[in-house]
Amino acid sequence: MRTLAIVTFAVIAIALPSAALPELGFEGGIAFDAAPKGDRGSMKYLGPQQPVFVTGSISNKGNARATSILVELIINNRIIGRALLGELKAGGSGSYSIKWIPETADTYHITVKIDPSGSVREEDRTNNMLQEQITIRYNVPTAEMTGDNIPRPDLQLPSFSVSPNPIVARLSSIACDVHNSGDAVAENVDVTIMMDGARFATKTIGPIPPESSLSVTFSWTPHKRGNVKIQAQADMENKIMESDESNNSAEKTMEAKR
Prior knowledge:
The protein has strands spanning 24-34, 43-46, 52-60, 66-75, 78-88, 93-100, 107-114, 129-138, 155-156, 160-163, 172-180, 189-195, 198-205, 212-220, 226-234, 249-256. It is an all-beta fold and 258 residues long. The strands form four sheets. Strands 2-8-7-4-5 form a five-stranded mixed beta sheet, with no helix packed on it. Strands 9, 10, 11 and 14 form a four-stranded antiparallel beta sheet that branches. Strands 13-12-15-16 form a four-stranded antiparallel beta sheet, with no helix packed on it. The termini are far apart. Mean pLDDT is 85; it is low at 36-43 and 140-145.
């Protein structure tokens, strides 16, 4: 009599860990910075051929690093430029900046893509694109613009500083901040320092876009003791047509000591 042996095999399934992958995405939206900066929300006031920098931040929310990350800028379905981010560690972030010169004053459709060719293997690729719209307007008035419709700069020089306090035969610096609160870029802005009613020095700065400021510093060495009336003025000769000409200067009296 033969004995039949029955052998039972148990199959145990072992779950292998999934591969660690990066997950790239945008932090926030697309930012537009003129050179120098000039912002009116989605409305940009520029000079012809003035560049704009399309900027933003990218994060890696995956559990592996990503290298050689390409960011592509597309405007009105045309590739404008690319930026290369070297490496983003897991949990890290980086920024991009791509230069663009608008051809005309118009409305543009902006698309920014992360890794457009798909060379980086990711957990999720559905968040690799952002789209936005921006309207560009030139600060140069057109023939149709008349009167109050013409965008103009508004230069302001509310105050200035002298540091250190003036001492005879010692160098001091006169620092002026010129602000443009108008609706157009101010080009070639003359900043003049007057002392006791006489012109001391003039420097030219700019351009200053709307809602932006530029600083300028003058060196001064007092030669005699006593009070000096100092006046700082932007566009003293009124070369720039502004919306308000009454706020361009500041003055103070300083005592030069020995």
